[in-house]
């Protein structure tokens, strides 16, 4: 969780950016568990208290650094762009997987940290997990509204299935790539549509 300046004055933006960049570089080079707050502040050339004025823990700092970078990888799908929903989902997942692959070790470490710190678990969910869940849920709802997904589908549940699939692979070191994004998209839109049609035929 990012802290405000204790004096009430705006914090130095450049100092915060430097700390985040330094933290990301060090954890990529040495591994999350091998990098301490002391190492980060020494490398960044600031006092330890300067870091703690902004973040409660190393995990909070690294999460903010990761969050900054995900803006380039996982922007919300352009729901008003006119593209079909399956195309939007596949592109979005491909972008997300690119980031998860690049910083998979860091994200696995943050997930582990979230299991040990209830406050950070809430922060991790609110800042990283929930926004991506919402993006996919919104996309699936658009697909329902367009008739691209069955009106019987529970978009929150389908979104949970999608996230479960790629978080499982991430945690177990599986491959996250464009082929997997395509496979998920097929299962969501094509396979489920075929199941719906079969169900409707049987009911008729």
Please explain how this structure is put together.
- The chain is mostly helical and 204 residues long.
- It has two domains: 13-56, Arc Repressor Mutant, subunit A (Orthogonal Bundle), CATH 1.10.10; 71-203, Tetracycline Repressor, domain 2 (Orthogonal Bundle), CATH 1.10.357.10.
- The protein contains nine helices and no strands.
- The chain has helices at residues 13-30, 37-44, 48-52, 58-70, 85-102, 104-116, 118-146, 155-171, 178-203.
- The radius of gyration is 20 Å and the shape is elongated.
Write the layout of secondary structure elements.
Blueprint: H1 13-30, H2 37-44, H3 48-52, H4 58-70, H5 85-102, H6 104-116, H7 118-146, H8 155-171, H9 178-203
Helix pairs in contact: 1-2, 1-4, 4-6, 4-7, 5-7, 5-9, 6-7, 7-8
